[in-house]
Specification:
Order of helices and strands: HHEEEHEHHEHEHHHEHEH
Radius of gyration: 18 Å
Structural class: alpha/beta
Shape: globular
CATH superfamily: Alpha/Beta hydrolase fold, catalytic domain
CATH topology: Rossmann fold
Strand order of the largest sheet: 1-2-4-3-5-6-7-8
Oligomer: single chain
Number of strands: 8
Number of helices: 11
Largest sheet: 8 strands, mixed
Strand content: 15-25%
């Protein structure tokens, strides 16, 4: 299924920013957020933020997440894991802080996570880490008022890739790894991959020599011509089946980093195997639309509506 999302006015994004980063609200934080060029959000009267929780340890490496909780209502609330991009070689959890806060404002417990980058560990470490974070959410469901059977995922670019992998490998234990808490499911019930490089080999062939191809070569430990089998194995498109979590795929039609056609092919594969999915083309000529001034609001409105249907309280009463 494909629907078109056209740019709306700036009201939604502007209001969200005003709510989350006003000076009065920032002053109420116990520990003020460091000023960075990121989407790090601050606490508000309706969102409590707990930063730098260790969700797993790998050797001497602590894996951290920031937790965003609604302050109103008793829960349990559906949960969402938010995953940053950065070509597997950069970025951190603050990049999806504003998105996590948006979800918490609307009745979700959201966690924005760090994962091991390619300079620290190669494929499939980042996938193992994100699955460990989902297990952590279930292991701590009672403490943080999370509904353990209603967990979604959202992320952009490399984060969209990881979200698509979470959705596509729900019944593939070989991707779970031994990181963090075990004994809990790493399954997600809904996924919103934003501009996901879901077919790594296709993208490499469409954009030979691109910086992103070099980034994923570092992540996979071999180039697409050296080890095409590994590139195929690491691609979400090759793991999608009818057991995959429902996906809302959003992608800019003019994306210069990951061609829109990559998501078209992912949608085709989902349809072919009977996986529930929807592709939303974004009329935008850049990559990270989900954080753009005019697109943050419309993107999160659409994503939240999808989560509401799939894992929100309203889905419990649908016919």
């Amino acid at each position: 299924m494909k629907t078109f999302l056209k740019k709306k006015g700036m009201l939604s994004a502007a209001v969200a920013v005003a709510i989350l980063v006003s000076p009065a609200v920032a002053a109420r934080q116990t520990a003020p957020a460091k000023e960075t060029e990121t989407d790090e959000a601050v606490a508000t009267s309706t969102v409590a933020v707990t930063r730098n929780i260790v969700y797993a340890r790998v050797g001497e490496h602590d894996l951290l997440l920031d937790l965003y909780e609604p302050t109103k209502g008793g829960g349990p609330f559906p949960g969402v894991i938010c995953i940053h991009g950065g070509g597997m070689s950069g970025g951190n959890k603050t990049a999806f802080g504003r998105h996590a806060a948006y979800l918490a404002e609307r009745g979700y417990v959201a966690v924005s996570v760090d994962y091991r980058l390619s300079g620290v560990a190669k494929y499939p470490a980042s996938i193992n880490d994100c699955k460990a974070a989902v297990r952590w959410m279930r292991a701590n469901a009672k403490k943080y008022r999370i509904a353990p059977d209603r967990i979604g995922a959202i992320g952009g670019s490399a984060g969209g890739y990881l979200v698509a992998m979470l959705a596509a490998t729900t019944d593939k234990p070989e991707f779970d790894g031994e990181v963090g808490v075990t004994g809990f499911s790493s399954r997600v019930q809904a996924a919103v991959p934003l501009a996901p490089p879901a077919d790594l080999l296709l993208r490499a062939r469409m954009m030979p020599g691109a910086g992103t191809t070099k980034s994923y070569t570092a992540y996979l430990g071999a180039g697409p011509d050296e080890n095409p089998r590994r590139w195929e194995q690491a691609s979400p498109i090759n793991h999608v089946d009818r057991k995959s979590a429902p996906m809302l795929i959003m992608h800019a039609t003019g994306d210069p980093t990951t061609p829109y056609q990559v998501s078209v092919e992912l949608q085709k594969r989902c349809e072919a195997v009977g996986a529930q999915s929807e592709l939303v083309p974004i009329e935008y000529n850049s990559h990270s639309f989900w954080s753009a001034k005019n697109w943050f609001g419309p993107t999160m409105e659409r994503a939240t509506a999808f989560f509401d249907r799939q894992i929100g309280d309203s889905h419990l009463f649908s016919p």
